Amino acid sequence: MHVASETVAPSSGEMSQRGARAVYELKLGAQMELGKGWTGWGHMGLQTASDVPHRNVEGLLGVKYSRQLRCQVRGKDAASWM
């Protein structure tokens, strides 16, 4: 919940701005292994205010690829040391 209020008094008159009394936010997300070194993730979010016309919708998708390198160190597999 956010509360904000500002008043500015320039030479030509007075201006004021009042923020939302209550802001609500909901986010849902997921991450999954896609196989063969691929990972995917995403989330969606919604933000809305109770007493001013404010709405924000967001989304994010991502993928990542990683692979394990194998090398020999002193006659042993380096992956077995980790």
Radius of gyration (Å): 25 Å
Number of strands: 7
The biggest sheet, with number of strands, parallel, antiparallel or mixed sense and barrel status, is: 3 strands, antiparallel
As residue ranges, the low-confidence spans are none
The structural class is: mainly beta
Give the spatial strand order of the biggest sheet. Answer: 3-4-5
Tell the overall outline. Answer: elongated
Mean pLDDT, as a whole number? 80
Assign a percent range to the helix content: under 10%
Oligomeric state of the chains present here: single chain
Strand content: over 45%
Order of helices and strands: EEEEEEE
**How many angstroms separate the termini?**
45 Å
Count of DSSP H/I helices: 0
Please characterize this protein's 3D structure:
With 82 residues, the chain is an all-beta fold. It has a domain at 1-7 and 24-67. Helices cover 0% and strands 59% of the residues. The protein has no helices and 7 strands. The strands form 3 sheets. A 3-stranded antiparallel β-sheet has the order 3-4-5, with no helix packed on it. Strand 3 and strand 4 (38-49) form a beta hairpin. It is elongated. The two termini are 45 Å apart. 0% of the residues are buried.
Write the layout of secondary structure elements.
Elements: E1 5-8, E2 15-18, E3 23-35, E4 38-49, E5 55-65, E6 72-73, E7 76-77
Question: What characteristics describe this protein?
Answer:
three-stranded antiparallel β-sheet; mainly beta; 82 residues; single chain; two-stranded antiparallel sheet; elongated; 59% strand
